[in-house]
Amino acid sequence: MRTPLQRIRFGAISLASVLVISVIGFRLIGNHSWLESVWLVVVTISTVGFSEKSGEEPVFQAFMIFVILMGVSSAAYTCGGFIQLLLEGEVARAMGQRKMTKDINRLDKHVVICGFSRLGNDLANQLLHRKIPFVIIDINEEKVRRANELNFLAVKGDATLESVLQEVEIGKARALATALRSDADNVFITLTARNLRPDIQIIAKSEQESSCRKLRQAGADKIVMPHRAGAQQMERMISRPTTADLFELFAEASHLEMELDEIEVLNHSKLVGTSIVEARIKERFNVLVVGVKDADGRFHFNPRPDDLIGNGDTLLVIGEVQNINQMKTEFKI
């Protein structure tokens, strides 16, 4: 059973073939000029006609009958497919799908979110606030439709398949987050993504303690256990309420001016080779450097003023968003 698009494609090819054959036939059999042949084809297939009686030879009349039958049938078949396409709304869907494909192909350094559950939805909103591009994969058509209604890039597919991950440009992605309900699916997605991209950052959700080891073996860099994170937050609110307020302050940065941010210092930055005191970050931008992660992955909290900033270091800073952005611009970060 052909889809409307397939009907239109097949009908258009058939109609074009009939037109070409008919023009050549009128030219050779009827000895008409090329322009007259085209005119005859048009008035014949359009059923306009040219006279009730024909003085042409029987061979020409038989060919005319062939042109009428094939031409009208091809045109009717093509029009039927187009009408069906309109009735089913596939024009809008096809155009929307084409636009989405183009938008996905333009993605770079984006995040692939596997699963549009509550966790995936919250993650998408957080990334949207941080202006980090992302694309969602979910096998449930209803969830994909809901994500599209929120103007999120989302595709319907099985994220455990390499072809689906390649469709969302995993080769250019900065990270992949798998938030499916099944730990087995999260393990399989992690394994597939790691085989496709050995260098991509993978964050995986786990419901069971026993799944953490499997996820790490499959290649997950970070593992999130929602129930454990929730318990830690509740404990913090009970035992260290002020600290909990501070964490919540930065977690709800969407409506606040303060931010806890990390800045990676690359070779082209003016900060490379300078000390924290020489950079005068606090004096110039009112931004506090609370920690440094060096290129080897070691953390140094509350760094000394004379500590040098090297290529590949990551600065952990606290300050107002506009000041942090100004600092990034000034130091070419």
What does this structure look like?
It is a single chain. With 333 residues, the protein is an alpha/beta fold. The chain has three domains: 4-87, Helix Hairpins, CATH 1.10.287; 107-224, Rossmann fold (3-Layer(aba) Sandwich); 257-330, Alpha-Beta Plaits (2-Layer Sandwich), CATH 3.30.70.1450. The protein has helices at 4-29, 34-45, 58-87, 90-105, 118-129, 141-149, 162-167, 183-196, 209-218, 226-239, 241-251, 276-279, 281-285, 321-330, and strands at residues 111-114, 134-138, 154-156, 175-178, 201-205, 222-224, 258-264, 288-293, 299-301, 314-320. Strands 3-2-1-4-5-6 form a six-stranded parallel β-sheet, sandwiched between helices. A four-stranded antiparallel β-sheet has the order 7-10-8-9. A hairpin with a 5-residue loop joins strand 8 (288-293) and strand 9. Helix 1 (4-29) runs antiparallel to helix 3 (58-87), helix 8 runs parallel beside helix 9 (209-218) and helix 10 (226-239) crosses helix 11. The longest helix has 30 residues, at 58-87. The protein is elongated, with a radius of gyration of 32 Å. The mean pLDDT is 83.
